[in-house]
Design brief:
about 30% helix, 1 helix, five-stranded antiparallel sheet, rod-shaped, 10 strands, alpha+beta, three-stranded antiparallel sheet
């Protein structure tokens, strides 16, 4: 790039306007500064986007791990209570399960699991096993085998935007051993 500089000449016959090359100048041209600032802003914007995506990914992964842990604990707790029983019954919708133990005086209920209206899985005492149940289904084979299907969901999004919610289906079988 060529620039025109006004340099005073000591000789009267010399032209006082001379062309010099850009590498001989003492500073930056406005165009160079604008380009440098623009490139810096693009680099900062790219770093911000990468950071934002990484944070969203981290939160989504942490939420999914939490849902998996909660679902695993819920199924494990139900299976532990079903195994010592001698028979099981489920209601018509399959959202409630009763576990009985045969005794000389008659069958006694040792466990009950049901889904309430607030997405909570509750036990015989009304205690909450998990409060993230999207759906629950108990299927009984014979009188001793129970198939459990439970959808556990987190509520990472809002009611209007549920696309970022995580849901995990747990399927397990338990057999009464008495």
């Amino acid at each position: 790039m060529m620039r025109i500089h006004n340099r005073a000449s000591t000789r009267p016959h010399c032209n006082k306007w001379r062309l010099t090359s850009a590498d001989q100048s003492d500073g930056f041209v406005l165009t160079e500064l604008i380009i440098a600032i623009s490139l810096s802003l693009v680099a900062i914007a790219a770093a911000t986007v990468i950071y934002s995506v990484a944070i969203k990914s981290w939160n989504g992964t942490a939420s999914l791990v939490d849902v998996q842990r909660e679902g695993s604990l819920a199924v494990e707790q139900m299976v532990r209570r079903i195994r010592p029983g001698s028979s099981v019954t489920a209601n018509a919708s399959g959202e409630s399960l009763s576990v009985f133990f045969a005794a000389a005086s008659g069958d006694s209920m040792i466990a009950c699991f049901y889904l309430d209206g607030q997405h909570c899985l509750r036990n015989i005492d009304g205690g909450t096993i998990t409060d993230r149940v999207d759906s629950l289904r108990f299927d009984i084979s014979g009188q001793h085998t129970v198939n459990i299907d439970i959808w556990i969901r987190d509520n990472a999004g809002t009611a209007a935007h549920t696309a970022d919610d995580n849901a995990v289906l747990y399927s397990s079988s338990a057999v009464c051993r008495n």
